[in-house]
Design goal:
single chain; two-stranded antiparallel ribbon; disordered N terminus; 1 helix; 10 strands; mainly beta; 49% strand
Length: 144
């Protein structure tokens, strides 16, 4: 993977094979990348599966347009770790293992977001969606 922080902005995607689910199909190896976006770390919470999830909000409302392609993937069959709050702010959820290590409450970061698709069968039901990985552009020691 290319090192973040090269100055590019925007979104790029990669496509491989497709699988179809219901009326909507999702590429099982699709990656959507937002090269540079400003976020603020809000909090962390442990879910019922004992995963620690970190929550970030979009710091600069002018950057909402960079989320357009990942938001277009939203549907009832497809989970996306991104949502709009009642206050019209965008929040994202990232597992702690995929988030920058230096995160304290209200920390502002410039990050690269990588949304990777998944498709799996659990208890006879097909589950599909995206999970997010986050790499800090403004922290030199963040491990990839």
């Amino acid at each position: 993977m290319r090192k973040p922080g090269s100055g590019e902005t925007g979104l790029r995607s990669s496509f491989y094979t497709r699988s179809s689910v219901g009326g909507r199909s999702i590429n099982p190896q699709r990656r959507l990348v937002i090269e540079k976006i400003d976020v603020t770390y809000i909090s962390a919470k442990t879910d019922k599966l004992n995963n620690v999830n970190c929550y970030f909000k979009l710091s600069d409302p002018r950057q909402k347009h960079t989320l357009k392609q990942i938001l277009s993937e939203m549907c009832e069959e497809c989970k996306i770790p991104l949502w709009e709050t009642d206050d019209a702010e965008y929040m994202r959820k990232v597992k702690k293992k995929y988030a920058p290590k230096l995160t304290e409450h209200n920390t502002d970061l410039t990050v690269m977001l990588v949304f990777k698709s998944y498709c799996m069968e659990i208890d006879g039901l097909l589950k599909q969606g995206y999970y997010a990985k986050m790499f800090a552009n403004n922290i030199e020691d963040d491990e990839k």
